[in-house]
Amino acid sequence: MQTNDNRSNNLKHKTLGGVARRILSGLGTACRHNVDFAPKRIMKSTGEVCLHVSMLLLSFGLFSGSQAFAQTKAANLARMRAERLNGGLRLYRADQCMHALRGEACLISVTDEGFLFRFRGGEPGWQQQIPPQPSLMTEVLVSADGDRILDVSYNGPLLRQNDNSPPVTPPDHP
Protein backbone atom coordinates (compact mmCIF):
# COMPACT_ATOMS: atom_id res chain seq x y z
CA MET A 1 0.00 0.00 0.00
CA GLN A 2 1.27 3.46 -0.95
CA THR A 3 1.46 6.25 1.54
CA ASN A 4 0.15 9.71 0.74
CA ASP A 5 3.71 10.94 0.16
CA ASN A 6 4.36 8.20 -2.42
CA ARG A 7 1.08 8.88 -4.22
CA SER A 8 1.85 12.59 -4.24
CA ASN A 9 5.34 12.00 -5.69
CA ASN A 10 4.00 9.63 -8.36
CA LEU A 11 1.36 12.15 -9.35
CA LYS A 12 3.96 14.93 -9.53
CA HIS A 13 6.23 12.83 -11.77
CA LYS A 14 3.36 11.89 -14.08
CA THR A 15 2.10 15.46 -14.26
CA LEU A 16 5.53 16.95 -14.96
CA GLY A 17 6.13 14.26 -17.55
CA GLY A 18 2.80 15.06 -19.20
CA VAL A 19 3.63 18.75 -19.29
CA ALA A 20 7.03 18.00 -20.78
CA ARG A 21 5.45 15.73 -23.39
CA ARG A 22 3.01 18.47 -24.43
CA ILE A 23 5.77 21.08 -24.58
CA LEU A 24 8.02 18.82 -26.65
CA SER A 25 5.19 17.92 -29.01
CA GLY A 26 4.25 21.56 -29.43
CA LEU A 27 7.84 22.60 -30.08
CA GLY A 28 8.32 19.82 -32.55
CA THR A 29 5.22 20.84 -34.46
CA ALA A 30 6.15 24.53 -34.39
CA CYS A 31 9.69 23.84 -35.58
CA ARG A 32 8.59 21.16 -38.08
CA HIS A 33 10.62 18.44 -36.40
CA ASN A 34 9.43 14.95 -35.71
CA VAL A 35 9.73 14.55 -31.95
CA ASP A 36 7.41 11.58 -31.63
CA PHE A 37 10.25 9.52 -30.20
CA ALA A 38 11.28 12.08 -27.58
CA PRO A 39 8.20 12.01 -25.34
CA LYS A 40 8.10 8.20 -25.28
CA ARG A 41 11.75 7.87 -24.38
CA ILE A 42 11.72 10.75 -21.91
CA MET A 43 8.52 9.54 -20.26
CA LYS A 44 10.47 6.54 -18.97
CA SER A 45 12.60 8.88 -16.89
CA THR A 46 11.44 10.95 -13.98
CA GLY A 47 9.30 14.04 -14.28
CA GLU A 48 12.12 16.30 -13.14
CA VAL A 49 14.34 15.22 -16.02
CA CYS A 50 11.44 15.77 -18.40
CA LEU A 51 10.94 19.25 -17.08
CA HIS A 52 14.62 20.17 -17.43
CA VAL A 53 14.85 18.77 -20.96
CA SER A 54 11.65 20.52 -22.00
CA MET A 55 12.92 23.84 -20.64
CA LEU A 56 16.15 23.39 -22.58
CA LEU A 57 14.22 22.60 -25.75
CA LEU A 58 11.88 25.49 -25.08
CA SER A 59 14.82 27.88 -25.13
CA PHE A 60 15.80 26.54 -28.56
CA GLY A 61 12.17 26.80 -29.66
CA LEU A 62 12.01 30.45 -28.65
CA PHE A 63 15.01 31.17 -30.85
CA SER A 64 13.38 29.63 -33.92
CA GLY A 65 10.12 31.30 -32.90
CA SER A 66 11.77 34.71 -33.23
CA GLN A 67 12.78 33.86 -36.80
CA ALA A 68 9.19 32.79 -37.52
CA PHE A 69 7.99 36.12 -36.12
CA ALA A 70 10.51 38.00 -38.31
CA GLN A 71 9.36 36.01 -41.36
CA THR A 72 5.73 36.90 -40.63
CA LYS A 73 6.63 40.59 -40.39
CA ALA A 74 8.71 40.32 -43.57
CA ALA A 75 5.86 38.72 -45.54
CA ASN A 76 3.43 41.42 -44.41
CA LEU A 77 5.90 44.18 -45.26
CA ALA A 78 6.59 42.72 -48.73
CA ARG A 79 2.88 42.35 -49.47
CA MET A 80 2.11 45.92 -48.32
CA ARG A 81 4.94 47.32 -50.49
CA ALA A 82 3.51 45.52 -53.54
CA GLU A 83 0.05 46.86 -52.73
CA ARG A 84 1.41 50.41 -52.49
CA LEU A 85 3.48 50.10 -55.69
CA ASN A 86 0.52 48.80 -57.67
CA GLY A 87 -2.09 51.39 -56.76
CA GLY A 88 -3.44 50.22 -53.42
CA LEU A 89 -6.07 47.65 -52.50
CA ARG A 90 -8.67 49.29 -54.71
CA LEU A 91 -6.63 48.26 -57.78
CA TYR A 92 -4.39 45.40 -56.67
CA ARG A 93 -4.45 42.15 -54.69
CA ALA A 94 -1.39 40.07 -53.87
CA ASP A 95 -1.39 36.28 -54.24
CA GLN A 96 -3.06 34.29 -51.46
CA CYS A 97 0.33 32.88 -50.48
CA MET A 98 1.23 36.29 -49.08
CA HIS A 99 -1.78 36.16 -46.76
CA ALA A 100 -0.98 32.67 -45.50
CA LEU A 101 1.18 31.94 -42.47
CA ARG A 102 4.61 33.58 -42.95
CA GLY A 103 4.19 33.73 -46.74
CA GLU A 104 5.80 30.27 -46.94
CA ALA A 105 4.61 29.40 -50.46
CA CYS A 106 5.97 32.69 -51.85
CA LEU A 107 9.28 32.57 -49.97
CA ILE A 108 12.13 32.02 -52.43
CA SER A 109 15.07 32.12 -50.06
CA VAL A 110 16.21 32.93 -46.54
CA THR A 111 19.77 34.17 -46.08
CA ASP A 112 21.69 36.22 -43.56
CA GLU A 113 20.68 39.23 -45.64
CA GLY A 114 16.96 38.54 -45.32
CA PHE A 115 13.82 37.01 -46.78
CA LEU A 116 13.24 37.00 -50.54
CA PHE A 117 9.59 36.75 -51.63
CA ARG A 118 8.29 36.34 -55.19
CA PHE A 119 4.55 36.45 -55.76
CA ARG A 120 1.91 37.18 -58.34
CA GLY A 121 -0.82 39.76 -58.14
CA GLY A 122 -3.48 41.50 -60.15
CA GLU A 123 -6.75 43.35 -60.05
CA PRO A 124 -9.18 42.44 -57.26
CA GLY A 125 -10.88 39.13 -58.00
CA TRP A 126 -8.13 37.66 -60.16
CA GLN A 127 -7.75 34.61 -57.92
CA GLN A 128 -11.46 33.81 -58.06
CA GLN A 129 -11.38 33.56 -61.86
CA ILE A 130 -11.21 30.07 -63.33
CA PRO A 131 -8.35 29.71 -64.06
CA PRO A 132 -6.81 32.51 -61.96
CA GLN A 133 -5.38 35.25 -64.17
CA PRO A 134 -2.69 37.30 -62.44
CA SER A 135 -1.19 40.18 -64.36
CA LEU A 136 1.76 41.25 -62.21
CA MET A 137 4.74 39.74 -60.43
CA THR A 138 6.69 41.24 -57.56
CA GLU A 139 9.98 40.21 -56.00
CA VAL A 140 10.90 41.83 -52.67
CA LEU A 141 13.89 41.37 -50.36
CA VAL A 142 13.14 42.16 -46.69
CA SER A 143 15.72 42.42 -43.90
CA ALA A 144 16.37 39.40 -41.68
CA ASP A 145 14.59 41.06 -38.76
CA GLY A 146 11.53 41.70 -40.95
CA ASP A 147 11.59 45.46 -40.35
CA ARG A 148 12.91 46.95 -43.62
CA ILE A 149 12.52 46.56 -47.36
CA LEU A 150 16.02 46.13 -48.74
CA ASP A 151 15.14 45.87 -52.43
CA VAL A 152 12.24 45.51 -54.84
CA SER A 153 14.10 43.71 -57.60
CA TYR A 154 11.04 43.29 -59.83
CA ASN A 155 7.53 44.69 -59.96
CA GLY A 156 5.98 44.40 -63.38
CA PRO A 157 4.09 42.32 -65.90
CA LEU A 158 3.79 38.61 -65.32
CA LEU A 159 6.67 36.67 -66.84
CA ARG A 160 6.40 33.96 -69.46
CA GLN A 161 5.20 30.54 -68.26
CA ASN A 162 8.62 28.84 -68.40
CA ASP A 163 10.63 31.84 -67.12
CA ASN A 164 10.58 31.69 -63.33
CA SER A 165 13.09 34.41 -62.58
CA PRO A 166 12.39 38.10 -63.09
CA PRO A 167 14.58 40.08 -65.47
CA VAL A 168 17.61 41.78 -63.99
CA THR A 169 16.76 45.42 -63.35
CA PRO A 170 18.60 48.14 -61.47
CA PRO A 171 17.72 48.34 -57.77
CA ASP A 172 14.70 50.41 -56.77
CA HIS A 173 15.87 53.72 -55.26
CA PRO A 174 12.96 55.82 -53.90
What this model shows, in words?
With 174 residues, the protein is α+β, with helices and mostly antiparallel strands. It has two domains: 4-65, no CATH class; 69-157, no CATH class. 42% of the residues lie in helices and 18% in strands. It has helices at residues 4-30, 37-43, 47-85, and strands at 93-94, 107-110, 114-122, 136-143, 149-157. Strands 1, 2, 3, 4 and 5 form a five-stranded antiparallel sheet that branches. Helix 1 (4-30) runs antiparallel to helix 2 (37-43) and helix 1 (4-30) packs parallel to helix 3.
Derived from helix and strand composition plus strand pairing, the structural class reads alpha+beta
List low-confidence stretches: 27-63
Straight-line distance between termini: 79 Å
The number of helical elements comes to 3
Principal-axis shape: globular
Helix content: 40-55%
Feature tags:
5-stranded antiparallel beta sheet; single chain; 3 helices; 5 strands; 174 residues; alpha+beta
SSE diagram, text form:
Layout: H1 4-30, H2 37-43, H3 47-85, E1 93-94, E2 107-110, E3 114-122, E4 136-143, E5 149-157
Antiparallel strand pairs: 1-3, 2-3, 3-4, 4-5
Helix pairs in contact: 1-2, 1-3
What would you say about this model in short?
By secondary structure, the protein is an alpha+beta fold.
